[in-house]
From TrEMBL:
Lineage of source species: Bacteria, Bacillati, Actinomycetota, Actinomycetes, Micrococcales
PANTHER family recorded: ABC TRANSPORTER, ATP-BINDING PROTEIN (PTHR43335)
Protein name: ABC-2 type transport system ATP-binding protein
Domain of life: Bacteria
Keyword list, A-Z: ATP-binding, Nucleotide-binding, Transport
Organism field: Schumannella luteola
Length: 305
């Protein structure tokens, strides 16, 4: 369990984290989202004692990180996989980490097997690919068999097989009752992996809810319809919003596919297509963070007009 109360971090005049409260619960995967500069890394660094809060605080399993006698056994952390640039082998790297934390070598072999590093465990870490480095970072996070895991962009650089592996791993860890906090910019991946989402924007919590609730909050699903009689359809669908789409179809908001089909049948409106379109976590996320992006790309205005 991770609990933040009025957690604040200022760098000079810049407020990176602005008095936030949240709880990350055990037994589920919590996704940590937000635009670049929203304060995710700063928050994660404060959780594991790498940054000091300006005010407020955060505890892991009931205590500030620094007060844990054996922090590696409480919290496993992957913050910057590239931080390990060493001439040592993966095995030696993990073994020395284990030795300084009183963890037996048998556990080193276990995490190497768990993360699929067996064939490269004796090779120099300096020569690892980004994906292998990520796996090594995850192996180090798992070393102490911790109840809480904090993984910043764990799928960064992984191939599709690796992405699926991380998803299954974190889902399995949560199913064992552990607390898992996971950041990623890949929304489709997050939608498949997380149970709960916390969205940050400019240092504040914009949303803290189950994934399904966040998606529903974006305005819900729409129905895509193609008909040669769009005007008649709009009249048949009083109360719903019918918007023309660029390809000649229309988008219906505020009615289910069943309602649209039945209303069309009752009025004798011909339908060539009737497709329910579920809104995605990505759409919900973009709607939530539309006003909070610190570094915005130029909009292609011609397309918007
Ligand atoms: N050491 C620092 N000194 C000054 N400002 C900092 C420092 N670290 C972070 N910041 C600023 O604090 C804000 C939050 O940064 P942070 O790295 O926590 O965001 P983030 O959500 O992790 O972003 P990203 O998705 O890009 O990793 C940003 O405006 C950043 O420029």
């Amino acid at each position: 369990m991770i609990q933040a109360r009025a957690l604040t971090k200022r760098y000079g005049a810049k407020v990176a984290v602005d008095g936030i409260d949240f709880t990350v619960r055990p037994g589920q995967v919590t996704g940590f989202l937000g635009p670049n500069g929203a304060g995710k890394s700063t928050t994660m660094r404060m959780i594991v004692g790498l940054d000091r809060p300006t005010s407020g605080g955060v505890t892991v399993n009931g205590r500030p990180y620094a007060e844990h006698r054996a922090p590696l056994r409480e919290v496993g952390v992957l913050l910057d996989a590239k931080a390990v640039h060493t001439g040592r082998s993966a095995f030696k790297h993990l073994q020395s980490l284990a030795a300084t934390h009183g963890i037996p070598t048998a556990r080193v072999h276990e995490v190497i097997a768990l993360t699929g590093l067996d064939s490269v465990a004796r090779k120099r870490v300096g020569g690892f690919s980004l994906g292998m480095g990520q796996r090594l970072g995850i192996a180090a996070a798992l070393l102490g068999d911790p109840a809480t895991l904090i993984l910043d962009e764990p799928v960064n650089g992984l191939d599709p097989e690796g992405v699926t592996w991380v998803r299954q791993l974190v889902r399995g860890l949560a199913a064992e009752g552990r607390t898992v906090l996971l950041s990623s910019h890949l929304m489709s991946e997050m939608a498949q992996t997380a149970d709960h989402i916390i969205v940050l924007g400019r240092g504040q919590v914009l949303a803290d809810a189950p994934v399904a609730e966040i998606i529903a909050g974006a305005g819900g699903a729409t129905v895509r319809v193609r008909t040669p009689q769009p005007q008649l359809l709009a009249e048949a669908l009083r109360g719903a919003t019918v918007t023309p789409l660029p390809d000649g179809a229309v988008s219906v908001h505020g009615a289910t596919a069943e309602t649209v089909g039945e209303a069309a049948a009752a009025r004798g409106v011909v339908l060539h297509e009737l497709t329910p379109i579920a809104s995605s976590l990505e759409e919900a996320y973009l709607a939530l963070t539309a006003d909070e992006v610190e570094y915005r790309s130029a909009q292609p205005e011609a397309v918007l007009r």
